[in-house]
Amino acid sequence: MATVGTPSAPSVPRHTNRLIKEKSPYLLQHAHNPVDWYPWGQEAFDKAKTENKLIFLSVGYSTCHWCHVMEEESFKNKEIGEIMNEHFVCIKVDREERPDVDKVYMTFVQATSGGGGWPMSVWLTPDLKPFAGGTYFPPEDGVHRVGFRTVLLRIAEQWKENKDALLESSQRILVALQHTSEIRVQGQESPPPAKEVMDTCFQQLSRSYDEDYGGFSKSPKFPTPVNLNFLFTYWALHQTAPEGARALQMALHTLKMMAHGGIHDHIGQGFHRYSTDQHWHVPHFEKMLYDQGQLAAVYSRAFQISGDEFFADVVRDILLYVSRDLSDQAGGFYSAEDADSYPTITSGEKREGAFCVWAAEELRALLPDPVEGATEGTTLADVFLHHYGVEEGGNVDPMKDPHQELKGKNVLIARGSLELTSARFGLGRGQLSALLRECRQRLSSARAQRPRPHLDTKMLAAWNGLMISGFAQAGAALAEQEYVSRAAEAAVFLRTHLYDPDSGRLLRSCYRGKDNSVEQSAVPIQGFLEDYVFVIQALFDLYEASLEQGWLEWALHLQHMQDKLFWDPKGFAYFSTEAGDPSLLLRLKDDQDGAEPTPNSVTVTNLLRAACYSGHMDWVEKAGRILAAFSERLQKIPITLPEMARATAVFHHTLKQVVICGDPQGEDTKEMLRCVRSVFSPNKGNYEGSHYLLGYRVLAFILAP
Fold first, then answer.
1. Confidence label for 679 from pLDDT (cuts 50, 70 and 90)
2. Which long-range contacts link 51-54 to residues 24+ away (Cβ below 8 Å)?
3. Which end of the chain is more exposed for a tag (fewer CB within 10 A), N or C?
4. Would you say 163 and 146 are in contact if contact means Cβ atoms under 8 Å apart?
5. Which tens digit of pLDDT belongs to each residue from 322-379?
6. Cα 542 to Cα 544: distance, rounded to the nearest angstrom
7. What are phi and psi of 488, to 5 degrees?
8. Example GO biological process term (predicted)?
């Protein structure tokens, strides 16, 4: 007999397809669908051509909520699976593993439908040209939406009856995409003027800013660290002007509201993906590594500028979460935690947010203790429920919970300040902080008994780069050597598992295998532009936090390799992918800073740092050519490229350098370094990560006297 309270043994799956041989957690999730899935590759392409079949391409990622929904509704449906297998060659792609494939077909979906997202569903001719696409489809027809079954049958019929017309249409679409996606220097363009670009970007951000809750839209609300980094740089250039004060207020207020909100996991630390509402309250619960890395860095800068320990505490919170829950024992960082999980160990169905939300009675049972010094009869639960906005019937707006998964539950949000809560219950602020800390620890222990969400243990070079930057910059700003050491450990992991010393090239991904070993695909995926750019940035950040020469040397080597693989000598700037892959119809250049900054944006600053350290002035010229290639966009709608707008200011201001001479182990030398690293300023005493700003840079020339 099974022990009471433990899940029953898993049943033997009815179906197993070739995805069972893959390493990607997302592809493995679909290995037991009745669909005859293929991974992206020659075997699938050959089958489509030999059998003259259309290709159905499905792209998603393992922590994508709507990807799970479409799998449950359609890809696990035997009848729909039979239709897919009969009429199409079906290909599954993990967008995090193959961003190149994702970007080509997302460009098509966005151009033809006006929107995009995941799961992405695209129909291709046997020569990989798209002609129809969308995102999530319900399985059957509804009042407002055609069902997936109907779409499949209609497209199969069109291929049978109007093949030539479909082929002509796909060719026209491809030509149009090639034309509209081209980014190049027009004539003799030069980099746009920094002041004009910066002022326009600030004005556009200011107009979209939410004065009450921070952020740059009503809902949904995303963290967008690129916007906050821009505002910090704008403030640094206009410290005595009203515009500078407003830029700083916008950034700091946004960061405070995010940290108080439900998008911040008050019990388990770290940040969820985005908020579904204006108040940063009800999040989409998945947690992504790239968010943690960028937010650790931006909260570190907020601490440098403001000196407010609140921001330093948020940095420590993020890095605690990553160290505990997203770290591989070999030193790398995992990609993500899912939004969905089983509410209890006996549940048969996952729910979004189940791991993170609370019923009021559950909290009262966990926190019954009377509070000494408070009004008579006050319990820990009374204080905690008040401070974190808990309501007896749940605090989630039904409009933000369309599937009723959060009914009666509470997403914790700090509605008021510590001062207000202290006053309400007659407590000292220090006493209140200690009580809330005890409550959070108790809830953390209770939450640990719940089934955990799925963990995507894929390790990506680009995202590991962003997280290394987070640890390194936090270590420098907070004077915490352990963070710098963790960054170095992850950099060693990259060099060991995601770098080929024979070719000098980065690899895209590796995976946690059996017995916690690190595994690689049978045919490793080569690194893309974003892998090089974010790793190079990370190595500069780590070098400046540690002054270990080896990290600088590796960064410069990778910059040369990036130039060789991705530079466009005709139109300038870097392509996202290298040349020579016949399965990729387009070589694209991303033109929007989103959840992650676009690689060309970060590369401008990388090139200036590389030139500063090496004296290789060709890199300054390349930086200018990138800005020239994006000049029109930067001058008209720089809000779409805030990181590149920020980089125009770096380009137009000469980086100054600090040389500290002394014994590297001497206390006076260390104190000098701490002083330089603690300040965020454009023109004096900037911490040595001043790649971000326009001031001094500490060189590695620490000389023994």
1. confident
2. 51/89, 52/126, 53/87, 53/88, 53/89, 53/126, 54/87, 54/88, 54/89, 54/123, 54/124, 54/125, 54/126, 54/155, 54/156, 54/159
3. N
4. no
5. 999 999 999 999 999 999 999 999 999 999 999 999 999 999 999 999 999 888 889 9
6. 5
7. -65, -40
8. carbohydrate metabolic process
For the record, the structure tokens of 341 come out as: 């999980």
Q: How far is CA 58 from CA 93, 214, 276, 407, in A?
A: 6, 36, 25, 32
DSSP 8-state symbol, 417: -
261 CB neighbour count, 10 Å cutoff: 27
Condensed to tens digits (0 to 9), the pLDDT of residues 571-592 reads 899 999 999 999 999 999 999 9
In the chain, % helix, strand, coil (3-state, to 5) comes to 50, 10, 40
* Domain 19-181 in CATH 1.10.1200.10: no
Residue 2: CB atoms within 10 Å: 8
- Identify whether the C-beta of residue 498 lies closer than 8 Å to the C-beta of residue 459: yes
Rounded Cα distance between 218 and 156, Å, is 41
Distances (CA, A) of 633 to 201, 450, 608, 620: 11, 48, 21, 21
* Residue 3 banded pLDDT, cuts 50, 70, 90: very low
What are the residue boundaries of the structural domains of the chain, listed by start? Answer: 19-181, 194-456
What CA–CA distance (Å, rounded) separates 26 from 59?
10
DSSP, res 502? T
Measured CA to CA, the distance from residue 385 to residue 413 in angstroms comes to 10
Q: How far apart are CA 71 and CA 505, in angstroms?
A: 36
Give yes or no for a contact between 357 and 410, defined as CB atoms under 8 angstroms apart.
yes
Cis amide leading into 223 (omega within 30): no
Lowest mean pLDDT among 1-5, 75-79, 192-196, 280-284: 1-5
User: In whole angstroms, what is the distance from residue 323 CA to residue 336 CA?
Assistant: 13
